[in-house]
Structure formats: C-alpha cells, structure tokens
From TrEMBL:
<dbReference type="GO" id="GO:0008869">
    <property type="term" value="F:galactonate dehydratase activity"/>
</dbReference>
<dbReference type="Pfam" id="PF13378">
    <property type="entry name" value="MR_MLE_C"/>
</dbReference>
<dbReference type="InterPro" id="IPR029017">
    <property type="entry name" value="Enolase-like_N"/>
</dbReference>
<protein>
    <recommendedName>
        <fullName>Mandelate racemase/muconate lactonizing enzyme C-terminal domain-containing protein</fullName>
    </recommendedName>
</protein>
<keyword id="KW-0456">Lyase</keyword>
<keyword id="KW-0460">Magnesium</keyword>
<dbReference type="InterPro" id="IPR018110">
    <property type="entry name" value="Mandel_Rmase/mucon_lact_enz_CS"/>
</dbReference>
<feature type="domain" description="Mandelate racemase/muconate lactonizing enzyme C-terminal">
    <location>
        <begin position="146"/>
        <end position="248"/>
    </location>
</feature>
<dbReference type="InterPro" id="IPR013342">
    <property type="entry name" value="Mandelate_racemase_C"/>
</dbReference>
<dbReference type="InterPro" id="IPR034593">
    <property type="entry name" value="DgoD-like"/>
</dbReference>
<keyword id="KW-0479">Metal-binding</keyword>
<dbReference type="GO" id="GO:0046872">
    <property type="term" value="F:metal ion binding"/>
</dbReference>
<dbReference type="InterPro" id="IPR023592">
    <property type="entry name" value="Galactonate_deHydtase"/>
</dbReference>
<dbReference type="InterPro" id="IPR013341">
    <property type="entry name" value="Mandelate_racemase_N_dom"/>
</dbReference>
<dbReference type="GO" id="GO:0009063">
    <property type="term" value="P:amino acid catabolic process"/>
</dbReference>
<dbReference type="GO" id="GO:0034194">
    <property type="term" value="P:D-galactonate catabolic process"/>
</dbReference>
<dbReference type="InterPro" id="IPR036849">
    <property type="entry name" value="Enolase-like_C_sf"/>
</dbReference>
C-alpha cells in the first residue's frame, strides 16, 4: 500500500499538511440562466462552498477547465487555498488565459466560502477584517442600445440607488461624426438633472480619436467616471488621454492578473481599477490587485454584471479594502430582463442585498454571507441544459465587425 506522500506525488498533490484535515470530495458546475456558471465544492466533512466562474459567452470552455480541476484537485486539502491557487495558476495560466482564470475564480471563491463556514466567520474577517460597515453600489440604466435613460434613472433612485452606470455609445466606426456623440451628452444631462451620479461605460467601443472628443464634451457634466475609454493594451494612448481630461478614468474588467494591471498603475493612467472577481482568479487574486492598486493611490471598484455569488464575493473585497470606491450590482440589469431569473433568484434571503441610500450593509454571515437555494440551482440548470448565452455580433454599415 503506497504511503500518503507517494499517493500525493502520484496525483500531483503537494505533501503539505494542515492542523485539521478536510479534503475536497467533489466539484460540480451549474450553467444557469440568465448567463451564469455556479460552482459547488464539497469537502469530506460535508462543508459546502459556492463559487461563480461566469465568463460571459464562454461557459463551455470554463466547464472544460473544471474537468481538469476535478482530476487534479479532488483529494486536496480545502484549507490550502493559496497552494491550490498557485498550483493552478503557475502550471496552467499561461496556457489557458482568461478561461483558466475564470475557472480558477469559481474554485477559489468556493474554497474561501468553505474556510469561512468552517471557522464560522465572514470571508472579510479572513482578509484582514472590516474597514467599513456598508458598501456603496450602483445599478445599470441604458443597456447596449441606450434609450429612455431618464425614466430608468428615476426607477433606480426609487429603488435606493444614488449612482448608476450606462453605456456611453452604441457601435461607432474608427472615425465618426462628432454629431454621433451629442446624444451621449444629452443622456448624461438628463440623468444628472435628477441629482444622481452616473458613470459612463465606453466599453472599448470608441477608438482614441473619438474617445478624446467625447471626454472633452462630457467635462462640464462631471461623470462619476468614464470606464474603459480604450481597449486594453493601449497603455501609452490611455496615458495621453488621461492628460486631456479631469474625469476619473476606470478600467480593468478585461485585465485578470496583477501582471496585467501593473503597466496601467505604473504609467499613472487610471484612477480606478475594476477587476471582475469571476474573471480575475476569484477572491485571492482580486484582493491582491486591490492591495497593489492602493500602493499607487488608485481606487478599486469591482466589475460585477453577474450573479449573486460573484456579487457576495466582491462585497468581501469591498468590506476589507481601504481603497474601495463602489461596486457594480446586476439587479434588474438589461441582461437579466425577459427571463425568470435575476440577482435575487438563487439566494434564500434577498434582504442581505437590500439597497438603502446607495449602500448595501456589510454581509455578516459565515463564508460569503449568503445561502444558495441549491434545489433551484439544480432545477434551473436542468431546464437550461443545452442553452448557452452568446454575446451579439455587431457590424457597421459596411459589414465590418465592431466592438460589442
């Protein structure tokens, strides 16, 4: 009979022990509407942790990564979160990119949930403790085709929000008429008229020529921030844009490691970093990004147009990070409309996410602080079997692809 060490080495398991052994027994994934991928991890002692590995439009690829995770990590000590993270990251990230990091996010979040439940404390307590009692949040208005944003902004204000975000423009070409940008200015004027703050998501739909024009036109109306004015990779170009506007610049939903964030921090071209916890390796890497950003006097505003598990995990970062600014919340977001499921659907107590005067109270329950309705998750996943959400493909009048 092989020794535990021999068995561990044969499976690729490190010979690392913990005070109380509780190994991973099973890892399950659930593709549920409207477009989310939930992860359930259970230990040999029956402790259950939930994670979210949503990568919009690519669920099957992430599920494929979990085939590897099950073979690799079942039998590992659930408490050794960093060891599991480093093993997956160092040996697989450079071959898997964002798909691997989203899968790792789901596993990582679930393991933090398990650790918190095992110790009977919220995850934020394990991240250094609470630095605030409540978390600022914003809701969405104006989806991919912005219209009637004033009515939507009034609805959000009635729901308890004091800040919202909307897409700045629809699809535009490399060089368009300045007249195409005037509607954006009118929309922000309308929203600001009711005394609510608004962030504008450029969504990478503008190239630098148009982005600098729109930023200049928006100056008098003081947006909360402009998000992703240029696509990732344009560090020098973004630095030049940064010098041309006083509006805070936010970016980061498509950056999913510290290494990817680093050039933007070092160049001083952003004011707010926006890691998406379901893309950027989960709680472990997102917390490291937040800490790194603090070194550069940059705020952190988690990107989270996703499900309740990702939102609860993002709140753990917010509660424990001094440089936290505001968190995205997908309740009644345009992607969720028209179906039976929304942010509150899969949790048993939606009061934990109640918005009051623009804030959600710090979660106080063990682990992530939410209770998932597993029966509904299984039912929804079974009903949605074979369905995969896909992002639309946008084309200009000439038939060429445009940024969605």
């Amino acid at each position: 009979m092989p020794s535990p060490l021999e068995t561990d080495e044969r499976k690729g398991l490190p010979a690392i022990s913990v005070a109380t052994s509780d190994r991973i027994k099973s890892i399950e994934t659930f593709r549920v509407p409207p477009r989310w991928l939930f992860v359930k991890v259970e230990t040999e002692k029956g402790i259950i942790g939930w994670g979210e590995a949503t990568l919009e439009g690519h669920s099957e690829a992430v599920e494929g990564a979990f085939e590897d995770f099950r073979e690799r990590f079942i039998g590992w000590e659930a408490a050794n979160i960093e060891d599991i993270y480093q093993s997956a990251y160092r040996h697989r990230f450079y071959r898997g990119g964002e798909v691997l990091m989203s899968a790792l996010a789901g596993l990582d979040i679930a393991l933090w949930d398990i650790k918190g439940k095992t110790l009977g404390v919220p995850v934020w307590q394990l991240l250094g403790g609470k630095v605030r009692d409540r978390v600022a949040v914003y809701g969405w208005i104006g989806g991919d085709r912005p219209s009637d944003v004033l009515r939507q902004a009034k609805d959000r204000k009635d729901q308890g929000f004091t800040a919202v975000k909307m897409n700045a423009v629809e699809s535009l070409g490399w060089l368009a008429s300045p007249d195409d940008l005037k509607a954006t200015v009118e929309r922000i004027k309308d929203v600001r008229s009711i005394g609510i703050d608004v962030g504008l998501d450029f969504h990478g739909r503008l190239h630098k020529t148009m982005a600098k024009q729109l930023a200049r036109m928006l100056e008098p109306y003081q947006p909360l921030f402009i998000e992703e004015p240029l696509l990732p990779g344009h560090v020098d170009e973004l630095s030049k844009l940064y010098q041309q506007t006083t509006i805070p610049i936010a970016l980061g939903e498509r950056l999913y490691t510290r290494q990817m964030v680093r050039p933007y921090l070092e160049s001083g071209c952003i004011d707010v970093i926006q890691p998406d916890i379901s893309h950027s390796g989960g709680i472990s890497e997102t917390k490291r990004i937040a800490t790194l950003a603090e070194t550069y006097d940059v705020g952190v505003a988690p990107h989270c147009p996703l499900g309740p598990i990702a939102f609860a995990a993002s709140l753990q970062i917010a509660i424990s990070s001094p440089n936290f600014v505001i968190c995205e919340m997908s309740w009644k977001m345009h992607y969720n409309l028209g179906g039976d499921y929304d942010l509150f659907s899969y949790i048993k107590d939606d009061e934990v996410f109640k918005v009051t005067n623009g804030f959600v109270e710090a979660l106080s329950g063990p682990g992530l602080g939410i209770e998932i309705n597993e029966d509904l998750v299984r039912k929804a996943a079974a009903e949605a079997k074979g369905f995969s959400w896909r992002n639309p493909v946008w084309r200009g009048p000439d038939g060429g692809i445009r940024e969605w």
